[in-house]
UniProtKB/TrEMBL annotation:
Species this chain originates from: Rickenella mellea
GO biological process, one term: carbohydrate metabolic process
Domain of life assignment: Eukaryota
Protein name: galacturonan 1,4-alpha-galacturonidase
Principal localisation: secreted
GO function terms (MF aspect): galacturan 1,4-alpha-galacturonidase activity; lyase activity; polygalacturonase activity
Listed InterPro entries: Glyco_hydro_28 (IPR000743), Pectin_lyas_fold (IPR012334), Pectin_lyase_fold/virulence (IPR011050)
Length: 425
């Protein structure tokens, strides 16, 4: 027994000794990225990479992490981007830069964590200046947590990011929880364009208990997303575009999204609640997608499904005779409760006339809009949908009976929202 205990002690001692901590150096007033990259090259496994509490690090140029194995990145100090737009634009236009201020080259068992300390662990993007100037040239993304197998993103706090925040392209087995994203403008005359919260495009991912205030999708699943679970118990999606699938099928691309569950979420003052968007002329299939237990407040489009997504920045909505469309199958919208904002207004992302989100023929009273092409949707069901309009007007729906096969849970018409028996059970 003593021999076994000794072997165990030596094993544990060896493990502890093998784990190292790399304290990121800081030079006041200077760019901390070069020194960080020089040091981290020697700490790619069994390491805690520590941004120390009490220090504000200057991330003036992009960080590309090497391939990591068993590494924790601990953001216990604050990180700040350059405050002036030209400095960031200069770094984003370099040949080696691939559009993210923090990008991962791949790895196994990687944790990116902040801290619960309210004063420390913040990443300050100084995005307000970009929004005020409506400048979208060479805008960097935030964190590309890519090609990671077995990853955790937790307790991160992002303040006024310039644009997109977290992306998980090519990753698998990811758990992201207790993260905060604050991307709300101080001015009614400027809008935080493209400040998407989480962009999920990988396999086996759980996102829960995140708090997001932004100007675009709170959460979105891109092509390649499979087995994605959003369980967001905190107030979510204030000022943004809700819980989205897509956009899919741009330039005719073949999309593949499967097994997505969005559950127990609150959206407030968002443009959308639950949304599916695919480009005109897209291809592929999105299947087995459920939004359940969604509570919404002052949302113009609580449930919105479209195969006519387009880019307002490049011209008017396209007219197409293409027979290609991204098909949908087994979509469920269940237990939606809330208020529809039916008072006329213009959302901050509108820069065209009509606005990019305008739906021809809509009254603004719709709790659900199915903007689909004939024969492209199978097994779509909206059940236990309870909504009132802000003005007290009768709740409506938009639906083309030739587009969806089967009972959709309400009378499929452009008119009053009338649940069927399947929509009440």
């Amino acid at each position: 027994m003593l021999r076994s205990a000794a072997v165990l002690f030596l094993t544990l001692t060896s493990f502890v000794a093998a784990w190292s901590t790399y304290v990121v150096p800081h030079s006041p007033g200077a760019d901390d990225t070069p020194a960080f990259l020089a040091g981290v090259a020697n700490h790619t496994s069994n390491t805690t990479i520590l941004f120390s509490k009490g220090v504000t690090y200057n991330i003036f140029t992009p960080i590309v992490f090497p391939v990591l194995t068993n590494v924790e990145i601990a953001i216990e100090g604050n990180l700040t981007y350059p405050q002036d737009i030209p400095t960031i634009q200069g770094s984003t236009s370099s040949v080696s830069y691939v559009s993210d201020l923090f990008s991962f080259s791949g790895g196994t068992n990687v944790t990116l964590r902040g801290t619960l300390d309210p004063e420390w662990g913040w990443v300050d993007g100084h995005g307000q200046a970009w929004w005020d100037a409506n400048n979208q040239v060479n805008r960097p993304h935030g964190w590309a947590f890519s090609k990671i197998n077995g990853g955790v993103i937790r307790d991160m706090k992002l303040w006024k990011p310039i644009a997109w925040n977290f992306a998980t392209s090519g990753s698998s087995n990811i758990h992201a929880f207790n993260n905060r994203i604050f991307a709300l403008s101080n001015s009614k005359n400027s809008f935080p364009f493209n400040t998407d919260g989480f962009s999920a495009s990988g396999l086996n991912m759980l996102f829960e208990n995140n708090h997001i205030q932004n100007g675009d999708d709170c959460l979105t699943v891109g092509s390649g997303g499979k087995n994605i679970h959003f369980s967001l118990l905190r107030p979510l999606g204030e000022g943004g575009h809700g819980l989205s699938i897509g956009s899919l099928g741009k330039n005719g691309a073949v999309a593949d999204v499967q097994n997505v569950l969005c559950v127990s979420s609150c959206v407030k003052n968002t443009l959308y609640g639950a949304r599916f968007k695919s480009w005109t002329g897209g291809n592929g299939l999105a299947r087995n997608v459920t939004w359940r237990d969604i509570f919404f407040t002052n949302v113009p489009f609580p449930i919105y499904v479209t195969q006519n997504y387009w880019d307002q920045g490049i011209g008017p909505r396209p007219n197409t005779s293409s027979t290609n469309n991204t098909h949908i199958q087994d979509f469920t919208f269940q237990n939606f409760v809330g208020t529809i904002e039916d008072v006329p207004y213009v959302e901050g992302s509108c820069v065209s006339n009509p606005c990019w989100y305008a739906v021809p023929g809509a009254t603004g009273k719709e709790v659900i809009i199915l903007d689909l092409y004939p024969g492209t949707a199978t097994h779509v069901l909206a059940k236990r949908i309870f909504a009132v309009t802000e003005t007290g007007a009768r709740v409506a729906a938009m639906c083309n009976a030739t587009a969806v096969i089967g009972d959709v849970g309400f009378k499929c018409q452009n008119g009053p929202f009338i649940p069927t028996l399947a929509g009440l059970l």
